[in-house]
Amino acid sequence: MTPTQPTRSGGFWAEAWRRYRRRPLALAALLFVGWLALVALFAPAIAGTKPVLCRYKGHLYAPCLAFFDRRLEPAVFARDRFRGTYPQNLKEKDPDSWAIWPLFFQDPYRAVRENEWPGRPANPARDEGHPSASHPFGTDQYGVDVLAKMVHGTTVALLVGFVSMGLAGTIGIIIGALGGYCGGWVDMVTSRFTEIVMCIPTLVLILALTAIIEKPSIWKTMAIIGATGWTGIARLTRGEFLRLRQSEFVMAARAAGAGPVRIMLRHILPNALAPILVPITFGIASAILTESALSFLGFGPPPPSASWGSLLNDARSNYSMWWLVVFPGLAIFLTVLSYNLIGEGLQEATDPRLREARK
Amino acid sequence: MIEQPAPPHLAPPSSRAPLLAIRNLVTAFHTPAGRIPAVDGVSLSIERGRTLGIVGESGCGKSVTAMSVLRLVASPGRIEAGEILFSSAGTTLDLATLPEPAMRSVRGGRIGMIFQEPMTSLNPVFTVGDQIAEAVLLHRRVSREAARARALEMLQLVRLADPQRRLDEYPHQLSGGMRQRVMIAMALACDPELVIADEPTTALDVTIQAQILELLSELRARLGMAIVLITHDLGVVAETCDDVAVMYAGRIVEQAPAAELFARPRHPYTIGLLAARPSPGMKHSGPLCTIPGMVPLPQHFPAGCRFHPRCAYARLPGAESGNGRAVPLPAGELPCNAGVPELHEVAPGHFVRCFHADSLGPPRSAQEIAAGGLFP
Amino acid sequence: MTAPLVEVEQLQTYFPIRRGLLRRVVGNVQAVDGVSFSISRGQTLGLVGESGCGKTTVGRSILRLVEPTGGRVAFDGLAVRDLRGRDLRNVRRRMQVVFQDPYGSLNPRMTVRALIEEGLIIHGLGSAAQRVDRVVRAMERTGLSRQALERYPHEFSGGQRQRIAIARALVLEPDFLVLDEPISALDLSIQAQVVNLLIELREQLGLTYLFISHDLSVVEHVSDEVAVMYLGRIVERATAAALYAQPLHPYTQALFSAVPTVDPARRRRRIVLVGDVPSPSNPPRGCRFHPRCPLAESVCREVDPPSVSLPGHAVHCHVAARELASSGGNASVAAATIAALLTERAAPAAATLSPG
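C-alpha cells for the assembled complex are given below, as produced in the milestone run.
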C-alpha cells in the first residue's frame, strides 16, 4: 500500500523550510543575517591592520587572527619588534616577504598613524572625521575608523546573540521541561523560581551583576544576559511539555515501555522545539539590543573593544559627529529587524494550524 | 419516524418549484498545491417539508455543498459555477450570486444551520439565552424582551429541561446533547423554511443521538420545514430521510427516495458501503465485504468515473476489475476510465451515475449482498 | 481448564478532583468502579458503552497507562499492579495497545520506521539490521509496503495510519492487545478493511483482544463475549450471540434500539431514554441507571443490583433478576417481557426530560 502523497515529504523541518521560503521578507532577513555572519567570521580579513596571510622569513603566518584573540598573534612579530605596525616592518625586516592585506586597512582599536600604510596620512579625528572617500563611515573622536569598528562589532553582536540565547535556551528548556513533565511539587518549585527571576527587571539585574564582577568582559556580559533571559522560554517550554505529555503518542511510548527520560528527549522535545525556537529567535534580537544598551550606558565591555553600542556611547558626548549615531544605529536596527522577521517567518512556517489538512 | 408525509397545510411538492434547487454547483479551493474541486457539478433539489440526506465519506464534498448553499465556504474556497435557487416568499433567489447583505438576511432568517460540534459552535462567553436572542434580533425588529421570550419559547420547543434556568447558563454548563438542542433552537428561532444540519449527531452518544433524531422528526412534523441532513451514517439516513443522495469525490453518484435506495441500491459504491457493515449473524460467514483502496485525494482524482479504481464492477479494456475478477468490456461500451458518466434514471426518481448500472445484474437488496457477497 | 490470560477483579480507577491553593482532594471521578471480567487466551472480549462509561479507562488501567486505585489485575498469573521497573517493562512487551485517533497516536516527527521500531529499541531487541527486518515483517502483516519506512505519518490516510499503529503494536509480538476504538475515526469503507485485518491477525498470531468500542455491530462481529458498561460498572455480560438475541438489561435494550439501521426488518422499536448520563463524580445511589430507566422501582433507587448469572450470560438488574426468576431462567422469555415493558413505558417524543 503506497502512501497518499506521491512526493516524499522530508519531514517537519523540510516542510517548514518550504513554507518559510515562500515569504520574501523572511528570506531577505535570513540572507542579511547570513551576510552578517560572514562579515563577523571574516572581520579581520575585511578590516584590520595585520596581514591576513603573510610569508616572513620563510614561514607562513596569519597575524590577523590576533583580532579574535591577542594570544594568537605569532610570537615572531613581537620578538622582531614590529610593535603592531606591519606594512613597513615586513618589507624592512624581510625583503622577500609578501602579505595578503585585509580589504580595508584600518584598525578597530586605534587610529592609524601617519605613513603606517605608505603614503597615507593619519586618521582625522573629531569633527574632521566625517565620512569621506578614505573613511566611508567616518572616524570617531580619537580617529579610530568607524567602519572597522562596525565590522568587528558585528562579531560581537552576533556572538552576543547566539551565546546568550544558547545559554538562556538551555536553562529555559531544562527548567520548563522538568516542570511541565513532572508536575506536582517539581512543577511548583520550578514555576515559582521562574516567576521570581521574572519579577526582577532584567536590565537592573544585569547592571547589578556587571557591577559586582571584576574584570568585566564581553563573555561575562553574554553569560549574564543569558542567565537572566531564560524565563520566557521556560514558561513556553513548560506549556508545551504539559500539553504534549497528554498526547496519545506519548501514551503509546509508555505502553511500549519507554521511561520518562526517553519520552522527554525523544518524543516530546522534538515536537516542542518549533514553538520554542520562535522566542529564542526574538531573544537574539533582544540580546543584541540589551548589549547595545549596556554599552551605550557605559556598562559594556571596557574599551578598546568594538561594539555597536560603544559607538553610540561615544556619540553621546560628541553630538556634532552624526556619523557616530547613524551608522551603528542603522546596523542595530537592521539586525534586530532581521531577527524579528526571521522569528515571525519561523512562527508561520511551523504553526500547526497551517499545517497539513486532516483527511 | 421512518417516513413522514408532508404536513397537509403545505401544497404538494409537484405543484410548486422546489424550495431549494442546486444546479451544477462547482466549489473549488485554490491552494498553493493547486485547484481542488471539492464539489464538482452537483445538482439537487429539495422539496418543501421533505428531508434530504446527503451521505458520503470524508472528502466527498457533502459539507462543502452545505456550506456553499449558505456561502460560508472559507477562503481559499470559492463557488465557481452553478446556481443555488431558493424559492420562498414568492421570490426565487440565486444564493450563489446574491449580494452579501441580502445573503446575511437569508442566513438564519430563511435558512437555518446546525453544525456538527456543539462544543465549538456555541460561543463560550455568552449565555445560551443571549445567543438564541441574538439570532432573533438579527432578523426581526423586536425588543430585547421579546427576543428573550422567543428564546425561552424555542428552548421549550426543543424540550430542554428547565428552560428558564438554562437561558442564563453558559454552554460549558450543558452536556453535549443539551448543547445540540440549543443549536437546533438557534437554527429554528426565526422560523426558517429550510434547515441544513451538518452531521448534527456524529459527536453524540448513540442514545443521545436517538433523542435528537426523535426531536428533529417531531419538529419537522410540527413546523413543516425542509431538512437537509448531512451525515456519513447510513442508518441515520435510512431512518429519518425521505430522499437520499450519495456523494463520492465531489459528485453525486446515486440519488433516490430513501426506501428505494436502501432496498435496491444500484451504484457500486452504494452497494459496497451497504455491504461493508457487519450484520448480526454474519459473523461466521467470513470476512466483511470491503471496498478496496482508499478515497482518492482531490489532487489525484481518477480520470473518467472517479470510483472506477475501487469498483468491483469496473470495465476496463483488457484489465481486471477491482476485486480481481476480469470483466471483459462489451463491444460499444465506454470503459470506466474514459468519460464521466452522467446521472440517469434507472427507476422512477432513482438516478445513478454509472455507465453500467443497467448491466450490473438484477438489483439486489443490501441484505442479500451482506449474506452472499458482492458477487452472486 | 487453563487459567485466563487476563483477569480483572473489582477494578477501581478514581481520578481525584482537586480544588484550592493547596490542591486538596474534594471528590473523585469514579471512572471505573468495581469492574470484573476475565479473558481466556485467544478470545476477544468486546467492551461497549457510551462516553463517560469508563471503557477506555478500563483498557488503560489494565496496561497501567493510568494507575488503578483499587482491585486486582492479573496477566498470565502475574499481579500487574505490583510490578515495578524492569518487571513492568517486560510485561508491557506482552500487552500492547492501539488507540482511537490515528492522527494523535503517531509522533508526527518520527518516520514510520522509527515509530515501529521504538518498542524494539526500548527493550533492546536485536541489532539495527535485525530491527529493520522485524519492522518490515510487521508492516507486511498489516498491508504496508516497504516504501513506507522512511515516510512520515502525515503522508498517509487515516486507515493507513491505523495500520502503522497496529504494526507498532505487533512488532513486539505481544499476547494481548487492547484495541481502544480502533476504527471509530475511520471512513466507513476503510473500517471494514481494518476489521478484517484485525480478525485475520488474531487468527494468524493467536492474539487475545480487548475490543473497546461504541459501535455495536462491529463489536458483535469481532467479539466472542461482550460486556456493556454504564457509569463505571458492567451492567451485562454475555456471549455475543446471546447478548444480541436476548439482551436483558434495560440499558442494553435501549442501546440496541437507539442504533439506526438500514434494514427495516432489523429495526427495533426505539426506546428513548430520558435525560443525560449523570456525572461520574456523583453517581446515583443504588442502581446507577435508575434515574434514566423507564422500569425503575423503589428497590432500584436504594440497593445495588445483584449479579444474576446464567451459562454465558450475566446481568446486574433488579427487574431482570425478577423476570428471570419468574421465567425459570429462560433468558429469551425474560428479555421479551422486559422489551415489552420498555416500549410501553418509554413512549418517545412525549417524554419530558429530567435534569441532566
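Chain B touches chain C through 55 residues (CB under 8 Å). DSSP finds twelve helices and twelve strands in chain B. Further analysis is deferred to the final report.
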